[in-house]
Amino acid sequence: MEEKRALPFVAPALIILCFVSLYPLVQGISRVLYSFRALTGKNVYSGLQNFVLLFRDSVFVHALLNSLVWTVTSVAAMFFVSFLLATMLNSRHLRFRRAFRTVTLIPWALPGVVVSLIWRYIFLSGGPLNTALSGLGVTYPPAWLIDPHVALWTCIVANIWMGIPFVTIMILAGLQSLEGDILEAAAIDGASYLQTQVRIVVPSIKKVILIILTLESIWTFNSFDIVFVLTKGGPANASMTLPLYAYTWAYGSQQAGYGAAIGIIMLLILLSVVVLYIREVLQ
Amino acid sequence: MRRAMGMLGMAALFAATAAVCAGAVTLQFLTPAWQEDTVTEVENIVAEWNAARPDIQVEMVSVAWENINDYLLTSFQAGQGPDVIHQDTVMCYEYGVQGYAEPLNQYLDAATLADTPQASWDGVSDDQGSIYGVPFLQETLVVFYNKAMFATAGITPPADGMVTWAELRDYALRLTKTDASGQTTTWGLLAPLEQRLWWCLVAQNGGQVLAKHADGTWYVEIDQAARQAIEYYTNLITVDHVMPQDVLSYDFTSLLQGFKTGKYAMFTFGCWVRSWINNLTQNQLDWGMLEVKGPVRNVTESDPQGVFIYSGSAHKDEAAQFLLYFTNTENQARIAKADWLFPIRQSALARPEFRTTQEQWNVLYQWLPFAEDVKPKMFGFFGWEWQSFIPQIEQVILGSKTLDKALQAATDDGNEYLRRMGLQ
């Protein structure tokens, strides 16, 4: 009865949500069934051919692995560094706490492309980082954007820097919701710093951590701007990730169907993350 | 001048107000013009048009070269493209094939057709003869060099500035300097991969990478002449060590800064970069230009730009009127001069400002007959190049693949790409 009464109030939002969310999804899925034929300039029905091609495509497999490495390492590092930062910012002994909290937010307030351009400048062969390394006596500093073994990690560093503020603020909010008595009791009982963090703090803010990890995993997996500006997926596809690869096919080669097929694989991967999250929350 | 522009602006404002009252047509004109002088000149031309034609008002929309295609594809898919669009000529053709660019044959009179070389029209036409754009700007790919460094190295370039492949390599070898630790302090040459010197070299050697069957389908077949050209380019990095791996990922400002400070003795770029060198060095750096002479023929990349009309425009006739005005002799000359490029219309090109010794226009003018679009006119060329070909060349440059293996992979991957695109 209650639900029936609520329906008219929810309906407008549901309709808008369907329009802006479901409609593009259905459009995207329907695109997968078509391939662009350049000789005629027409999109022709090709069934599931785009998916068949996808799994024969070595660059796709490489981009998929890169995306997993990119997401797992970025989110893990973001969480670890942010946890330390948030603990520090939560400390009553830290002077100028408010100023530090404001400063921490700055990278998050900058547009992704601006951050990427700044990092690109820093990582250039003759950029400030390599100039500093040369000054310190490193004869052959790494070619951050050119070395295929380094390029993806360079992008990951920039991504971590950009993601830290949000994660820090979220963890800080979780820490501030903790009762001081619990921590004091742990201290009286002789728990070490590490024991307190692992056995008391983390379990206490588990729900906050879960939502942070889920959101950051989705955002990082879908992230496009940093890799695009820093390396464009190169050299020789070494830092290619799935969103960039989908863009390359959809816009660079005008194969929207193939780009959509990559998008659907990404959606399935992210759905599994969301399912894991929901299962944990329901428990 | 300022007063005149002010009056023109006022006139345009009055015209626009009158136009709104009279229910005039308003066209959107999308342009990626970005250099300050060029933007000003385009704005002036649009303002003059608006003042003279209250019935057809033009609204200028700016977009960056880097994302103009994303912008257009998204707009076209939504059925809301701008009416008149300034783009690379190769994209005029591609959008024409897809049905997004309107055939212009009915709007082009015999005088306009005759004033532009046939090769330029071919670049924007399909096999059935539909013309999808009006080519209006071109350039030449040149080698910029530091005259003081040349003098120190005892290099005297030929009077006409045309150097052979062997001479260019010899200059680069003599100009490259290392310090006591073996680290390179001056690179002889920097030819960024995306500036396509290597494509020019392939054309100069009479080579073939992409070819077209009689039925219109395409295939990748890299012949010996093309292999020689690509090997010459990659050897400059991997064997001669006169060019850094930075060719893979360069930064425009750092490149110019490097030229100014002597990090790069020579670099290749389009001729419009002259304005940037002058601005950056405050005319304090003595620099010159060279053109690479081909073993088989002389070719340099012209990278032509054109203007086309969106087929979904509700005001095609009015758009055509503005397009023809925008690309007329006077306006082509004005925009080309402001952009440090050359017009394509022969009547505009004949004007004396493109042959003056000031800013070395005369040096470039002598090489203009060699300028052509070296990129094969294949739909999806850029996608093919960056998805299947360049990654292989990058691996040669990085030393992770031999040239033979890379070219074999480029052939296999390239043909696979063409099949996917429906070009085979």
Which key phrases capture this entry?
heterodimer, A: 283 residues, mainly alpha, MetI-like fold, two-stranded antiparallel sheet, 2 strands, B: 424 residues, alpha/beta, D-Maltodextrin-Binding Protein, domain 2, 2 domains, 16 strands, 46% helix, 15% strand
Write structural notes for this entry.
The complex is a heterodimer of chains A (283) and B (424). Chain A has helices at residues 2-31, 49-54, 58-90, 97-109, 112-123, 128-135, 151-176, 180-188, 193-204, 206-222, 225-230, 242-252, 256-282, and strands spanning 34-37, 42-45. Chain A is an all-alpha fold. Chain A has a single domain, classed as MetI-like (MetI-like fold, Orthogonal Bundle), CATH 1.10.3720.10. Chain A has a two-stranded antiparallel ribbon with strand order 1-2. Chain A is flat and about 75 Å long. The mean pLDDT of chain A is 89. Chain B has 424 residues and is of the alpha/beta class. Chain B folds into two domains: 2-139 and 303-372, D-Maltodextrin-Binding Protein, domain 2; 141-301 and 380-420, Periplasmic binding protein-like II (D-Maltodextrin-Binding Protein, domain 2). Chain B has 18 helices and 16 strands. Chain B has a six-stranded mixed β-sheet with strand order 2-1-3-14-4-15. The longest helix of chain B has 21 residues, at 2-22. The chains are: A mainly alpha (283), B alpha/beta (424). The A-B interface holds A 35-41, 44, 53, 59, 120-121, 124-127, 139-140, 143, 145-148, 231, 234-237, 248-249, 251-255, 258 and B 69-70, 73, 97-99, 181, 183, 216-217, 244-246, 248-249, 251, 254, 258, 263, 379-380, 382-384, 386-387, 391-392, 394-395, 397-398, 400, 417, 420-423.
